[in-house]
Structures are given as structure tokens and as C-alpha cells.
Specification:
The chain has 328 residues and is mainly α. It is built from 20 helices and no strands.
Length: 328
């Protein structure tokens, strides 16, 4: 109980103190007065970090100013990291500025802590922060950590963020954004990717992004770049939804007929067809299926990648199945 943990905090043995600070995380608001003194100067850094973790789990507003103070620049990095992660538990929008600042720090651990906090933080302020901090991560060793954190919040959100940088003045950022957007089947990435292709006709990243975003896979061709040039010449003025229709040619999916304007198919029928494609179709078309599912239903979910096991795809698709069932 709280009394036992309070007594253990006075024990001379560090492991006992650490265990007590950890145990207080489940005691709720009554533990806050016991944990707050552990944030003061002179307290062992390990004890301080554990106290921050416990306060983040309790998320009592009275503790937030002290935690914010330890998350600010000028504090030791290890303490600052623990405070940033703890602040995510409070869910206060004011903390997003501290996350944004940490995301631009030179210390890799702090930048990862900021990503961890933003990934779990609810609301539009965190979504906006992801867009602002993108240049701190793309083209660095933390690029994959950033894109994973962003895309775990929603593929449509990620596409929105990536679109902002498709005309960025930094060629490296523009290239990486085009690849990531293309992997999510973002149609506006295609012209950017096509402009890059002549300089790197065998680039695996560019070709994979083009397969996802154009909905046709020419990667196994002897000259994939040349075939994509021909495809682009013939399709660049089409509505991108027709790219998906063309990509389904020769495949037994009802979407090929129902996704065309004037088909008479209802929204529910099209959503059902898209789910069929998502769950049973070629894996490189999963991003396009997810894009149109989101835009038709308004439901955004984490990226469903081509490498996701079929059972996990079915689980991820359940939210759109539930939407569909609610229409009947």
C-alpha cells in the first residue's frame, strides 16, 4: 500500500527506493505528494526518472508544472527524456511545444522521446507538430522512426503531412517525401516521382513508390522506367481513381466495374469491393484500397503495408467492416 511504499522510499538501499517509486504509479492521486519530492535537486537520477514515469501514469494535473520544468532545455538529457515521455500521459496540449523543441535537439535520445510522446498524444496539435518537425528527421538515421510514428496515427494524416513537402526546396527532403507519399498511394506523388525517375531509372525506392501510387506494377519488366514513362504519357490527365481501375484489369475484382463514374454502384457496394481488394488482392494495391476506404468513410487508420500478414490485414479492416454493417 501507500504507507509501505512511503516507508520504503526512506530505505537506504537504492533498489528498494526504485521499487517503491514504481509501485506508487498504481496508487493514484494520493501518491503525488510522495513522488513530488523525488523530482528535487540532489535526488538520485534513477529515482527521479522512475518518479517521472509514475507521475506520467497518474497524470495528476498538480504535478504537471514540475514535470514540464524537467522537460525543458537545460536539464540533463536523461531526466529531460523521462519528463517528455511522462508529459504525454497528462494529455495537455501545452506540452506539444516541449515535444517540438526536443524533436529538434542534437541528442538522438531526446528526439526519439519526442516522437514517442507525439505518437501517443491525442488531438490535432500533435498532428500539426508532426508536419512541422519532418525536416528534422527525413534523410537522417531516425527517418524510419519518424515515418512509423506518423503513419501509426493514420495513413491519411501521413499523406496530408507528406503533401506539404512535395515541392520543398530541399531536393533530399523532396525525394524522401515523394517516396513515402508514393508508398501510401498518394496520387500527387506520381508526377514528382516521374520527374526523378530519368536520373535514377533503377532506383528500387522510386519504382516501389510508383507501383503503389500508380496502381500498376512494372518492376519486373526489363525496362521498368521506360514502361512507366509510357504509362504516364497515357494516364497523367486521368482521374487517379481510374489508375486503380486500370490496375485491376485482368483481375477478378468487382471494383473494376463499380469504381467507374456512372456505374450505379452505391457507396456501400464500393466500400465492400474495396475491402475485398484490401483483404484478397495484390499486396501492392493495399495502400490504394486503404486510401479510397478512408476517403469514402472518413475513417483513418494506421498504414496497412504490403508486408502485413493477412490476419493482421483482416483485423485492421474490421473498422471499415463495422462502418459497412452500420449502413445496412
Amino acid at each position: 500500500g501507500v504507507e509501505a511504499a512511503s516507508a520504503a522510499l526512506s530505505d537506504e538501499r537504492l533498489p528498494i527506493q526504485v521499487a517503491a517509486a514504481q509501485a506508487l504509479a498504481s496508487a493514484g492521486g494520493q501518491a503525488v505528494p510522495l513522488l513530488m519530492p523525488l523530482l528535487e535537486e540532489g535526488v538520485d537520477p534513477l529515482i527521479k526518472r522512475v518518479a517521472l514515469q509514475s507521475l506520467g501514469r497518474i497524470a495528476d494535473p498538480s504535478a504537471m508544472p514540475a514535470v514540464e520544468n524537467l522537460a525543458a532545455p537545460g536539464q540533463p538529457n536523461e531526466i529531460r527524456k523521462a519528463a517528455i515521455v511522462a508529459l504525454a500521459g497528462f494529455g495537455d496540449r501545452a506540452s506539444v511545444d516541449l515535444f517540438r523543441t526536443a524533436a529538434g535537439d542534437e541528442d538522438i535520445g531526446l528526439r526519439l522521446a519526442a516522437l514517442s510522446a507525439l505518437r501517443e498524444f491525442p488531438g490535432g496539435a500533435a498532428d500539426a507538430a508532426f508536419g512541422e518537425i519532418l525536416p528534422n528527421f527525413l534523410g537522417t538515421t531516425l527517418e524510419a522512426s519518424y515515418t512509423h510514428a506518423l503513419e501509426s496515427r493514420g495513413a491519411e494524416l501521413a499523406r496530408t503531412v507528406y503533401r506539404r513537402y512535395l515541392s520543398d526546396g530541399n531536393p533530399s527532403i523532396r525525394r524522401r517525401v515523394a517516396v513515402h507519399a508514393g508508398m501510401l498511394a498518394e496520387p500527387s506523388a506520381v508526377p514528382v516521382l516521374m520527374r526523378m525517375l530519368p536520373q535514377a531509372p533503377n532506383d528500387r525506392d522510386l519504382l516501389e513508390a510508383l507501383a503503389h501510387s500508380s496502381c500498376v506494377d512494372y518492376r519486373s519488366m526489363p525496362d521498368p522506367a521506360g514502361v512507366y514513362e509510357i504509362w504516364w504519357r497515357d494516364h497523367q490527365r486521368q482521374d487517379p481513381s481510374l489508375w486503380l481501375v486500370d490496375g485491376l484489369e485482368g483481375r477478378d475484382f468487382a471494383l473494376a466495374q463499380n469504381f467507374i463514374e456512372g456505374s450505379g454502384a452505391s457507396k456501400g457496394q464500393i466500400v465492400s469491393d474495396l475491402l475485398d481488394l484490401l483483404e484478397k488482392g495484390p499486396t501492392f494495391l493495399r495502400p490504394a484500397a486503404q486510401l479510397y476506404l478512408t476517403r469514402l468513410t472518413g475513417i483513418d487508420r494506421a498504414t496497412i503495408s504490403p508486408g502485413l500478414p493477412p490476419a493482421a490485414v483482416l483485423e485492421a479492416a474490421a473498422v471499415w467492416r463495422a462502418w459497412l454493417n452500420g449502413q445496412s
